[in-house]
Each structure stands twice: as structure tokens, then as C-alpha cells.
């Protein structure tokens, strides 16, 4: 069983710090998340509104596994948000999602970089499977998950599902 605290540990990648989100992060996150294009492929296309964004952010703060605010190392600025969720201690699975990045950082490989770090961290903690649930029309996120090597598994409602499995020959994806 992976201790819940494991999923709340700060992480670091080449370009990002992933630190525990705090209520003070709402303002800078909303500044980058208030762009309608950020949410155009999501199930809640109006998440750029203050009311919807605040609910999204608060659900991350209330999440049992916490949430990460992403800090871009080269500028020290808030760059986005992500989290682990729905840990299953029996199956040793966890989901990664609710991720968004500042549009100015799109196309730089940062989403893949942060997801690889989170996947490695989950596997190092003892998880055997990491799952991604992606809205059926969010082709950008689906392609990103497939680039990580995930396999498509059974869908749930309007979500396509993808999984990465830990194997005995697992070696760090982040390398």
C-alpha cells in the first residue's frame, strides 16, 4: 500500500517544480486559466470563468491526494496545475489528471516531462498501474498520453481511458 503522503511529495523535473497547491495559488492560476482556449477541448469548456475555475481549483485542494501547482523554474512563475486522484489501495492504481499548462508553455514538452515525473513517482511508491481519463473530444490530451506509452483501455462514459503498467523491467520514464 502506498502511503497517501507519498502522492503529496514535492517533485522536480528539468524545467518545473511541482509543489503542493495552496489557496493563494488561485489568483495566479486563474490568470493563466482564464483563457477560453485552454479549456476548448475539455468537457467543461467554460472552466475559464471565475465560478467554474474556482470550483475546479477547490476540488483539487480538497482532493485526498492533494494537488500540485507547477512552477516554471526559469522564471519562478506559476505555470499550471495537476494532481493525482482516485488511488485504489487494493489494485495499487492511481489516476493522474486535471492538468493544465499556461498557453505560453504549450509545445515545449513540459506536459510530457511533468507526467513522466508523476508516473515514475507513482511506480516508485508501489503503484502497479497509472490511469488517465481524457474527455472523448480532447484529442490533444489523448495524443499526449499515447506519447507516454499508455495503452487505451475500456472507456467510461464520455471519457477515453489509458493506462501505463509497471513491469518487473520498469525503468524510469523520466530518463
The strand line-up of the biggest sheet is 1-2-3-4-5-6-8-7
**Which term fits the overall shape?**
globular
CATH superfamily: Gcn5-related N-acetyltransferase (GNAT)
Measured by DSSP, the beta-strand proportion falls in 25-35%
Average predicted confidence as pLDDT:
94
Strand runs, count: 8
Largest sheet: 8 strands, mixed
N-to-C SSE string, H for helix and E for strand: EEHHEEEHEHEE
* N-to-C CA distance: 26 Å
Q: What is the CATH third-level topology name?
A: Aminopeptidase
User: How many helix segments?
Assistant: 4
Class of secondary structure makeup: alpha+beta
Highlighted features:
globular, alpha+beta, about 180 residues, 8 strands, Aminopeptidase, about 25% helix, disordered C terminus, single chain
Written overview of the protein:
Mean pLDDT is 94; it is low at 168-175. The relative contact order is 0.17. The chain has 175 residues and is of the alpha+beta class. It has helices spanning 26-33, 50-62, 110-125, 139-147, and strands at residues 11-12, 16-20, 68-72, 77-88, 93-101, 129-135, 151-156, 159-165. The chain has a single domain (4-165), classed as Aminopeptidase, CATH 3.40.630.30. It has an 8-stranded mixed sheet, sandwiched between helices.
Walk me through the topology:
Elements: E1 11-12, E2 16-20, H1 26-33, H2 50-62, E3 68-72, E4 77-88, E5 93-101, H3 110-125, E6 129-135, H4 139-147, E7 151-156, E8 159-165
Parallel strand pairs: 5-6
Antiparallel strand pairs: 1-2, 2-3, 3-4, 4-5, 6-8, 7-8
Quick rundown:
By secondary structure, this protein is an alpha+beta fold.
Amino acid at each position: 500500500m502506498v502511503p497517501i503522503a507519498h502522492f503529496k511529495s514535492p517533485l522536480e523535473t528539468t524545467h518545473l517544480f511541482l509543489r503542493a497547491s495552496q489557496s493563494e495559488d488561485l489568483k495566479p492560476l486563474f490568470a493563466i486559466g482564464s483563457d477560453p482556449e485552454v479549456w476548448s477541448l475539455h468537457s467543461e469548456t467554460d472552466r475559464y470563468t471565475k465560478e467554474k475555475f474556482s470550483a475546479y481549483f477547490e476540488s483539487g485542494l480538497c482532493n485526498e491526494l492533494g494537488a500540485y501547482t507547477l512552477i516554471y523554474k526559469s522564471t519562478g512563475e506559476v505555470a499550471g496545475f495537476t494532481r493525482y486522484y482516485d488511488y485504489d489501495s487494493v489494485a495499487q492504481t492511481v489516476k493522474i489528471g486535471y492538468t493544465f499548462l499556461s498557453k505560453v508553455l504549450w509545445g515545449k514538452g513540459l506536459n510530457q516531462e511533468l507526467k513522466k515525473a508523476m508516473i515514475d513517482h507513482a511506480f516508485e511508491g508501489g503503484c502497479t498501474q497509472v490511469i488517465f481519463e481524457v474527455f472523448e473530444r480532447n484529442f490533444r490530451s489523448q495524443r499526449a498520453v499515447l506519447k507516454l506509452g499508455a495503452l487505451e483501455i475500456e472507456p467510461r462514459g464520455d471519457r477515453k481511458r489509458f493506462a501505463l503498467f509497471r513491469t518487473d523491467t520498469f525503468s524510469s520514464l523520466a530518463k
